[in-house]
Each structure stands twice: as structure tokens, then as C-alpha cells.
Design goal:
Largest sheet of chain A: 7 strands, parallel
Number of helices of chain B: 3
Number of domains of chain B: 1
CATH superfamily of chain A: NAD(P)-binding Rossmann-like Domain
Oligomer: heterodimer
Structural class of chain B: mainly alpha
Strand content of chain B: under 5%
Largest sheet of chain B: none
CATH superfamily of chain B: ACP-like
CATH topology of chain A: Rossmann fold
CATH class of chain A: Alpha Beta
Number of strands of chain A: 7
Order of helices and strands of chain A: EHEEHEHEHHEHHE
Number of helices of chain A: 7
Order of helices and strands of chain B: HHH
CATH class of chain B: Mainly Alpha
Distance between the termini of chain B: 10 Å
Structural class of chain A: alpha/beta
Shape of chain B: globular
Helix content of chain B: 40-55%
Helix content of chain A: 40-55%
CATH architecture of chain B: Orthogonal Bundle
Distance between the termini of chain A: 37 Å
Shape of chain A: globular
Number of strands of chain B: 0
CATH topology of chain B: Non-ribosomal Peptide Synthetase Peptidyl Carrier Protein, Chain A
Radius of gyration of chain A: 16 Å
Strand order of the largest sheet of chain A: 3-2-1-4-5-6-7
Chain lengths: 227, 95
């Protein structure tokens, strides 16, 4: 059975995708910083910003040719002006969103190389092209993810591994809990499709990227909602 | 009992020969792995490193961490040649 590793599987889009993957018939290994409650899929504790933690959590899969894909959905956000964001928060956002994505790719890529093919799907945000006020540091971390993914895609292409980025607009998950509704509406109005997306809209893109039909798509950022 | 350098070098030579479809006698300690005149492409190099990681763990009882700031350096990398890689793996063994 093909295995898909999902980070950020305890909640939000990561949890949603992990559940859909499980329903689809994949073996799902979901990572969360703390125990993932009531999950129908296998879960392990790991901090994506800590390479040693990832190595401990995923060491047994490093040479497992059943590993087919990595979905890097772990992420944190903080709506704040740059000048009022504490340095510790800046560091935490960059470490989790950007370094965490890179570390997970480093950990999982060898098994995909051994397999001779696979998928890596990273997560960004429509905030990158829309340059949303109050999200500069979050956007910086995600712009880094997009640049990393596009370049990493070239390194992985010889092994038949595609690397793409899914960049949703505001989706109704707990990541938006602290964002005022009027701010969300203002962002949605800037999308090409001015409708707030559902987790299912993101899953549809993830599902496409996992399918054989996407074998010639790599190094791309797919904007859910359009920008 | 520790594994000798010669034995480790033999393993590396055979791995490189297999990955590059060469006769093992055509691969020696001076065979270049990175930089100018290398005989392995980047895909083969990663496969070699994955194999070496497993060999080091199972045969040498050590951990081969192949992330290195100088991994692709022709001058400084332990990966620069079959011999330098074999020496590095040999030296990883617990005293």
C-alpha cells in the first residue's frame, strides 16, 4: 500500500487532507507537534522545525519504497504589522513554515528517490501574490517555500519526483480563527474567483497533484481561488 | 571487530561500478565522484549515498550523515573520490 506522509495532520488542511487520503486507501502517516486526537490514520509526534525530531519520527520510512508522497501542510500564521511583531514570533514562523518544509523534504526525499518516483506537495498562500497587509512575515516564509519548491523540483526531476506548491486563499480552518471576518472578505474579493474556498477545494488540487495525470506538472504553484 | 579500509573500499568500488554499469576493475580509489571528471551523475551519487548510509549502519555500526556544507566541493568533500569516501566510512567506526 502506498504511504503518504502528511505534516500538520492534527488540524486544519493537514487533518482534512490526511482524512481524505486515508479514505482514498493510502496508508497515511500524520505528523503533529503533539498527539493527534481521534485520527483514523496512523499518527506520530514530531516538530517539523527540528530535524532530529523528524529523523526520530520518520527514520523507519527513510528507505521504504512504499512511501509515495509528502504533503507538507504544517504551518503557523500571525497577523501583525512587521514593526510590532516580536522577533521570537518572526523566528517561529520562518522556522515552522520555511525551514520545516525544507527539513521534511530532506527527510523524505531519499525514500522517494529509492522508489524512483513520487510526489511532494508543499503549502503556500494566496497572500504571496496578493501581498496582504499584516501578513508580511507569513508571506515571507511562504514565498520562501515557493522558491524552494520550484528549485527543488529540478533536483528531484531525474528521479521521477514532482514538487509542487498549493497556495490557497483564506480557507475556513482554525488558522483563520483570529482573523476578523471583514479582513477575510477583503482578501476573498481580490481572488480571481471571489468565493471563500472550502477545504475540499484544496483537497481537489492535492488529489490532482497526487494522481498520475499530474506527472508532467512540477515546480508549479497552484493558486486555489486564483491571484 | 572493525572492518578494514580495503574491505570498505571494495564495497564502494563495487557500488560505483554497479551504478555506472562498469566493470569493478575499472573503478579505483582515485575514481572521481564529484566535480570535473566525475563518473557518476547526481542521481547515481544519491543512490550511492543511500546505499552507503545503510552499509555504514549495518556493517560498520555507525551513522553516515551525508549532509555536509562541503558535500559537492571537489577539493574538500569526503565524496570527492572512491578512496576518500571509503576512508571516511572506515573512520566512522566506533573505536
Amino acid at each position: 500500500m502506498d504511504t503518504v506522509i502528511v505534516t500538520g495532520a492534527s488540524r486544519g488542511l493537514g487533518r482534512y487532507c490526511a482524512e481524505r487520503l486515508h479514505e482514498t486507501g493510502y496508508r497515511v502517516v500524520g505528523l503533529g507537534r503533539s498527539a493527534v486526537a481521534d485520527a483514523p490514520f496512523e499518527t506520530r509526534e514530531a516538530d517539523v522545525a527540528d530535524p532530529a525530531s523528524l529523523a526520530r519520527a520518520l527514520g523507519d520510512l527513510r528507505r521504504d519504497k512504499n512511501v509515495f508522497a509528502l504533503v507538507n501542510a504544517a504551518g503557523i500564521a500571525s497577523m501583525n504589522l512587521v514593526v510590532t511583531t516580536p522577533p521570537e514570533t518572526v523566528r517561529r514562523i520562518i522556522e515552522t513554515n520555511l525551514l520545516g518544509t525544507i527539513y521534511c523534504c530532506q527527510q523524505v526525499a531519499p525514500s522517494l528517490i529509492m522508489r524512483g518516483g513520487g510526489r511532494i506537495i508543499n503549502f503556500s498562500t494566496l497572500g504571496v501574490p496578493l501581498a496582504i497587509k499584516g501578513e508580511a512575515i507569513y508571506v515571507a516564509s511562504k514565498a520562501g517555500v515557493e522558491g524552494f519548491s520550484r528549485t527543488f523540483a529540478r533536483e528531484m526531476a531525474p528521479y521521477g519526483v514532482t514538487v509542487n506548491t498549493v497556495a490557497p486563499g483564506p480557507i475556513d480552518t482554525d488558522l483563520l480563527d483570529k482573523v476578523p471576518k471583514e479582513n477575510v472578505a477583503a482578501v476573498v474579493r481580490q481572488q480571481i474567483i471571489p468565493r471563500q474556498g472550502e477545504p475540499a477545494d484544496v483537497w481537489n488540487v492535492v488529489s490532482l497533484l497526487l494522481s498520475p495525470a499530474s506527472s508532467m506538472i512540477s515546480g508549479e504553484t497552484l493558486h486555489v481561488g486564483g491571484a | 571487530m572493525s572492518v578494514s579500509y580495503d574491505e570498505v573500499e571494495k564495497y564502494v568500488r563495487e557500488e560505483v561500478a554497479s551504478l555506472t554499469n562498469r566493470d569493478a576493475t575499472a573503478v579505483g580509489p582515485e575514481t572521481v565522484l564529484v566535480g570535473t571528471n566525475r563518473i557518476v551523475d547526481s542521481a547515481d551519487l544519491v543512490m550511492l549515498l543511500l546505499s552507503a548510509e545503510e552499509y555504514t549502519r549495518e556493517k560498520l555500526g555507525a551513522v553516515f550523515d551525508w549532509t555536509s556544507d562541503s558535500a559537492m566541493s571537489e577539493a574538500r568533500s569526503v565524496l570527492r573520490s572512491v578512496g576518500s569516501l571509503a576512508r571516511h566510512l572506515t573512520d566512522l567506526q566506533p573505536a
